[in-house]
């Protein structure tokens, strides 16, 4: 398990994070989790010299809109050995939240929370009702061209990173290496996506987040199924 052993924003902390992520895509397991979100939130920024940590940081950044839905138990920064400014900021934020909860004169917060909860339940019920309606699921067969930086790029590792991306409605298919020029080859990989669930633009951004391997992503072919 990752143990920063100090301030995650210090050179020593960033170096440990970078070394840990050199052979991993995520903090725990093979998919984004609450552990990634906790450490991402403690970081101020990641210098480019920590390439593995920066690749991970940019990748987790793309999940911020859905961070509460990611799996896993939300651990504390101390569980990862984070102390100093990263853990302090977290503690201070929690203390401020606790202070805000103390309301000697009463407030409308509870009313607002109940209204928000009721609205969320109505939206959830509507979404469930809509999902049960019969109808064909629109899908597309997409061929992506994933271009590496140069002929020294580990193409097997690059493909592994691409296939590590998991999205509801996404299924990876066959792949092959296609020559470009000067000994450089591109990865041509097939995927089937459910149109209502998967945005090709978002998928391309997730692939390009693997900055150590991927230079660019292009759509080579797109066909409705």
What does this structure look like?
Residues 97-115 have a biased composition (Acidic residues). This protein is 39% helix and 20% strand. The protein has helices spanning 11-20, 34-42, 51-61, 85-101, 109-131, 155-163, 200-208; strands spanning 139-148, 170-181, 184-194, 214-224. Strands 2-3-1-4 form a four-stranded antiparallel beta sheet, covered by helices on one side. Strand 2 (170-181) and strand 3 form a beta hairpin. Helix 1 crosses helix 3. The longest helix is centred in the middle third of the chain and has 23 residues, at 109-131.
Radius of gyration: 21 Å
Order of helices and strands: HHHHHEHEEHE
Q: What is the number of beta strands?
A: 4
Q: Portion of residues in helices? A: 25-40%
Instruction: Give average pLDDT, whole number.
Output: 85
**Strand fraction band?**
15-25%
End-to-end separation in angstroms reads 43 Å
Globally, the shape reads: flat
Structural category is alpha+beta
Major pleated sheet: 4 strands, antiparallel
Enumerate the spans where pLDDT stays under 50 for 5 or more consecutive residues: 88-107
What is the topology, as strand order, of the major beta sheet?
A: 2-3-1-4
Number of helices: 7
């Amino acid at each position: 398990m990752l143990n920063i052993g100090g301030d995650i924003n210090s050179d020593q902390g960033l170096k440990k994070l970078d070394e840990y992520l050199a052979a991993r895509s995520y903090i725990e397991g093979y998919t984004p989790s609450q552990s990634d979100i906790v450490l991402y939130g403690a970081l101020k920024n990641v210098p480019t010299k920590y390439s593995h940590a920066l690749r991970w940081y940019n990748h987790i950044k793309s999940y911020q809109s859905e961070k509460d839905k990611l799996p896993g138990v939300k651990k504390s920064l101390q569980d990862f050995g984070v102390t100093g400014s990263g853990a302090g900021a977290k503690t201070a934020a929690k203390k401020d939240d606790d202070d805000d909860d103390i309301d000697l004169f009463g407030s409308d917060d509870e009313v607002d929370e109940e209204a928000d909860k009721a609205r969320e339940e109505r939206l959830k019920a509507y979404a469930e009702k809509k999902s049960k309606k019969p109808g064909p699921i629109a899908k597309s067969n997409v061929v992506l061209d994933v271009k590496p930086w140069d002929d020294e790029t580990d193409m097997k590792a690059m493909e592994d990173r691409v296939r590590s991306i998991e999205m509801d409605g996404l299924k990876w298919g066959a792949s092959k290496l296609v020559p470009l020029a000067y000994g450089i080859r591109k990865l041509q990989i097939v995927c089937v996506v459910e149109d209502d669930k998967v945005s090709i633009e978002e998928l391309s951004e997730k692939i390009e987040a693997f900055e150590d391997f991927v230079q660019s992503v292009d759509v080579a072919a797109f066909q409705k199924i």
